[in-house]
């Protein structure tokens, strides 16, 4: 099991996730990018990469990334994101199950065990018999007959034509538009809550664009942030 080392933590990734979920460690103090870099370097030095190990890492890394995003931007968290994490875990578990099954099939094929039957025999005990599978068609069967049968079966498998549904294309707001919106708001008020900007957003994407627009205006020294406490309400103040 690979161990990760940083200023705040040393040990396997499973332990880190457990400590964070039990609130015994602050996720915001952990550099997830460094953990990812360490793991990539670890994989490069391996002669053979185990897909199961990679799948386990992806599940834990996705959980850690999700927990950190919730801690840094709690107002962007949605129930849909929880479902997406659960779906990722489900897909990776299925991937591992298929991987185990493929290994078993590979061993059977290596031994040329293509099919088995159960036979009680004279003793009444079940025993497994190996049977070679061969295609032995009747002499009367011709290529034309086979083609006709295949065409008949394929007729049932032909995809049905589906009518395309009409969809409404939503307008995607740009950072420039959101910057102009905030600048106009600052002309009316020298200070207001960031939650007011969020409430006027139409969807999650617009919330993210609003946040980026505020950061850009802060970079240009047009405004500053004010927050009371770690998770307190964020206020935007106009700079003269």
Automatic annotation (TrEMBL):
Q: Which Pfam families match?
A: SMC_ScpA
InterPro entries the UniProt entry points to: ScpA (IPR003768), ScpA-like_C (IPR023093)
Protein name from the UniProt record: Segregation and condensation protein A
Name its species.
Candidatus Falkowbacteria bacterium CG10_big_fil_rev_8_21_14_0_10_39_9
């Amino acid at each position: 099991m690979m161990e990760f080392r940083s200023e705040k933590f040393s040990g396997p990734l499973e332990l880190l996730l457990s400590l964070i979920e039990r609130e015994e460690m602050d996720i915001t103090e952990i550099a997830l990018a460094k953990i990812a870099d360490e793991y990539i370097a670890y994989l490069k030095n391996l002669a053979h990469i185990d897909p199961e190990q990679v799948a386990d890492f992806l599940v834990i890394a996705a959980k850690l990334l999700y927990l950190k995003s919730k801690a840094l931007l709690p107002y962007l968290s949605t129930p849909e994101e929880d479902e997406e994490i659960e779906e990722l875990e489900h897909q990776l578990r299925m991937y591992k199950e298929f991987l185990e099954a493929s290994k078993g099939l590979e061993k059977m094929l290596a031994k040329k065990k293509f099919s088995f039957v159960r036979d009680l025999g004279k003793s009444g005990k079940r025993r497994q018999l190996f049977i070679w599978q061969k295609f032995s068609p009747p002499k009367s069967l011709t290529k034309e007959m086979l083609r006709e049968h295949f065409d008949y079966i394929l007729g049932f498998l032909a995809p049905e034509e589906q009518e395309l549904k009409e969809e409404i294309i939503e307008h995607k707001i740009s950072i420039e538009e959101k910057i102009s919106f905030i600048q106009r708001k600052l002309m009316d008020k020298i200070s207001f809550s960031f939650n007011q900007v969020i409430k006027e957003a139409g969807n999650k994407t617009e919330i993210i664009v609003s946040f980026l627009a505020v950061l850009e205006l802060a970079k240009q020294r047009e405004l500053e942030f004010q927050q009371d406490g770690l998770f307190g309400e964020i206020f935007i103040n106009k700079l003269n």
